[in-house]
Design brief:
Elements (H helix, E strand, L loop, with lengths): L6 H4 L1 H4 L13 H30 L9 H20 L7 H31 L12 H32 L13
Length: 182
């Protein structure tokens, strides 16, 4: 019967070889590629959310609907700003600053997408600011689709970029030391 190494022989911290330091893991090349693809697909999807809102504002005459018209215009403008920011080469300012800008833009895009998604679903069942949708016409289906894609793609982007960014923003000397196990 082969014996497995004991906890003491496997864990250098227990053996007294010195403190265990957590080294920040660099995202793998594959993780970086997936993150960048998610970023660009999320940027496209939030720009499409904005395009649908602009079309509805200008061509479907939502501009005359009080409050809702203003919200459509603000959604179009906000989606344009965060979508464009997600396409900009902000990492030329430095990896940490660039990732911070992209993360804020991604959070803004997710906020817009989530807000329009929830508002649209509410307006299907009850009046929202005095306006109620009826039925799932093409503009509504497209908005639901692009809102969902924005949330998924940029959520994935944040999941991949966020942890290394958070680690890089910690002040020096605040690393957590791992306590010896039982």
């Amino acid at each position: 019967m082969a014996s497995s190494p004991s906890q003491a022989t496997r864990n250098p911290a227990i053996m007294g070889d010195g403190p265990v330091r957590a080294h920040p893991a660099r995202p793998s090349r594959r993780g970086q590629l997936v993150g960048e693809i998610a970023r660009y697909l999320g940027a496209v999807s939030i720009l499409l959310v904005g395009a649908v809102h602009a079309q509805q504002y200008y061509e479907a005459y939502f501009s005359i609907v009080p409050t809702i018209g203003t919200l459509f215009l603000l959604s179009f403008i906000g989606a344009g700003i965060v979508g464009t920011t997600l396409f900009l080469p902000v990492r030329l300012l430095g990896r940490r600053v660039g990732d911070l800008i992209l993360s804020v833009a991604a959070l803004g895009a997710i906020g817009i997408a989530f807000g329009t998604l929830v508002s649209l679903l509410i307006s299907e069942y009850r009046p929202l600011f005095g306006f109620m949708e009826s039925g799932y016409r093409l503009a509504i289906v497209l908005t639901l689709l692009f809102d969902g894609l924005t949330i998924v793609f940029l959520g994935l982007f944040l999941a991949l970029v966020g942890p290394p960014l958070i680690r890089s923003l910690r002040p020096v000397g605040t690393e957590h030391r791992q306590a010896p196990g039982p």
